[in-house]
Amino acid sequence: MLKDGQGLLVTTDSAEAIAAINRFIDQSLAYGKDAKTAILEAVDADPNCALANAYAAAYHLSQESTKDWQQAQPYLQVAQRNLGKITAREQLYVEAILAWANQEIDVAIALHEEITNQFPTDLISVQQGQYHYFYTGNKEKLLEIAQKVLPNNPQQDYLYGMVAFGLEQCHQLPAAEKMALEAIALNIYDPWAHHAIAHVMETQGRTQEGIIWMENFAYTWDNCNSMLYTHNWWHIALYYWQLENYEKVLKIYDEHIWQRANKQSPKDQVGAISMLLRLELRGVDVGNRWQDISPYLYSRIDEHALPFQDLHYVYALTKAGHNNWVKEMLQSMKHHALSINPFLRRSWVKIAIPAAKGMVAHAQGDFQTTVNELKFVLSRLHEIGGSHAQRVLFAEIYQDALLREQKQHRIYPISA
């Protein structure tokens, strides 16, 4: 056995595998673009290393696409096959990734909590625990899983960035900014810490300051994966949107959001869709950009990786005129909701499906249906994930529909 860079035992005798695992950990925590390459090198160096295979599976699962979930399966099989030969920490981690693959997110969360209790320097488990809490809407636990291991990880900038984001999501804004600044003082190339402060400034209405802040760090994001590169630029575009500088928003969209997106990535697609939607709410003509996105969404119709993503897909497909695809997707969402475990089923049945109907109705100009479908779920939308900055869009859609509906049915007095 050898130790990784976190000081934790890994069941392998391959120094080359350990070096690649360390690169993977660093790339994952930094949202780097070479995480996949690094972990596949680890698997190549030791094909039977259970942890390396579990990391490879986790990487694919995090892409939240059917293709990647299928690609995760061989790695899961190898990890499971070696389950009895590895350390207790590795066993817990493999079981957590198996639970994720089986969409038993509550089980995966419990296992990551156990790992971080017993092995508090395992920051990959902290990060993945936060990921699951984010997409199940538990902001308090998202903060706690990172905060509890702070004493065991002094001067660890990536952890500081994780805690900063959790603090921001829990509305502890001054503490979030202070923690993120500590992260950046240790590592100016920490994009998640930049991102945490972007959220703080957006929430506090520090729009001009936010633009300066993010644009000053933009040069450091070239080594980011497409998700965080495009998402950090999305935050810059959001600032300009708030200033009603829509020409600048479109320029950022074209050059840094959709142009630099991995067109097959659900998270990159969602960012692009949400920005186009915001522009249209302000009456901006987005041209043929809906049509540019829609061909990449066909594979999403029966996927249902995350309900938060599906709400964006149905809107974009409706705006692009693919009404048959939209009907197919809404029906598929209903079937999916009945096939999953009760922990996830509630949010699909009670929140995601009514919200999806409301999104489609808005895109079709049926504002009464939009109001009827969204008004009962707005207060619960945090349960399907997304940040405050992302979820406020649904409230804006509801308010837009409400105003339009009231205007359509306004009764004017007859002149004498």
What does this structure look like?
There is one protein chain. With 416 residues, this protein is mainly alpha-helical. Helices cover 69% and strands 1% of the residues. The chain has 21 helices and two strands. Strands 1-2 form a two-stranded antiparallel sheet. The longest helix has 22 residues, at 342-363. The radius of gyration is 22 Å and the shape is globular. The model is unreliable at 411-416 (pLDDT under 50).
Strand content: under 5%
Largest sheet geometry: 2 strands, antiparallel
Query: Given the helix and strand composition, which structural class is it?
Result: mainly alpha
In which order are the strands of the major sheet placed? 1-2
Total of DSSP H or I helical runs spanning 4+ residues: 21
Percent helix among the residues?
A: 55-70%
Radius of gyration: 22 Å
Distance between the termini: 93 Å
Q: What value does the average pLDDT take?
A: 95
> Topology as H/E string?
EEHHHHHHHHHHHHHHHHHHHHH
Low-confidence stretches: 411-416
Count the beta strands.
2
